Amino acid sequence: MVNPTGLNGTDNGVFPPDKELKKILHDFQRRSLSLALRLRYLQEHHNIKIGKTKLKELNKKFSVPSARKFKAVEEATSAIAEIIARDVNQGQGPDTVKKIASLRLNLTIPRDFVRDTMKGLVGQTPSEMRRPGRRKGPKKRSALDAIGVFQEIHVDGHEKLGEKALRMGPGIGIDTYGMRDHVGKVLWLVAIPNSRLSDTIGHVFLDMVSKYKAISIQVTFDGGSELGWLASFQTTLREIFAPELTAEEWKPVLAVQSSINVPIESTWSYDRQFNGRTLRDILEEGRVHLIPGDLIHRNLFRWLWPKIVQISLDEFVDYFNNKKTRKQSARILPSGVAPNVVFDMPEDYGLENLAIPVTQEAIDALRSLIDTPREEAFRWVSDDFDALAMLVYNRVGSPKIEALTGWAIFNTMAPLIREHVEVHNLYEALAC
């Protein structure tokens, strides 16, 4: 008998509009999730319960790319060449290049094609370029262990792109600050004017807490006066929202040597492998473009390059959290799976979600205690210069902001800003 309703008798949930569903499915592909994981995410995060056959139909309907039906040979070859060109030290393997192509360029490329193309372009296989002895190996460490996500967050500042590291003049440098869950996910990476100021780091910590609406049981850092507000806020929030936890059982904050603060310290090396070393090389090209002590050059650097660095940090976080880790039999924590997946589904890997929920009202109340307003703590240039630079940026056609074209944009904007400042006597706009 014909079923006039066309329904199969199973409640598949409520499907979102096609435009939204297409975006969800393409994001799954971009993150290189398996079909099984895509079905899990659809059911648990979007209340859609379907099988593999239906998912394949939807992928076909919305033209979701697949490595098995790879045809874009020329486009992929060009993309791989561009990624290799950005990697000054040639340390990225085919898995990394494949993931970068997926996350940054939305290209799904088979691994074998990536490997063969890299060999054709460079003249060596990726494994030959990374053979033992080419660089020093990592220190041997004991395996990390944890009960669950949000058990411990590791925090640290990074100054490899800072003023003292670049040595290109006063005010020419960009610090970064990072926070990573002990289980693996990078929670927060941000470019800031100064990673040694307690007020700034206090705002950074509250920004992270505001995003997740939760704190961890413990925050681990390697000391420093800049952590005054962070330690105070973590302790206060835990006392309010998890009073059952005692300091004897779980310390709210823990200061350790930097060599022991492994998860966040290792993050910086992963970032350098992804784009940090390349980014520093590009920044240091500014020695031939930037006049030390010139206020217009100083302000334009601080207006433009923090944006470029933040874009690079965001790309790295997206890449790192969605890349499957190498399968390690000796590792206690999950391996062979992307950090985002473990973080979203900890129970599948024998872990708990130990996040301590907090309210936005409490976050706002603590933020009000900081003497320096958030806007001021993150200020790179004055409001007047920001408005002037944006005016000139729009005037030159609003070119795409990225590292490879950063100095070209700088050289295009600098004379126009100088002309505007001199004609209208706007030197006060350079004060920050």
From TrEMBL:
Please, which domain of life does this record's source organism belong to? Eukaryota
What name does this protein carry?
Transposase
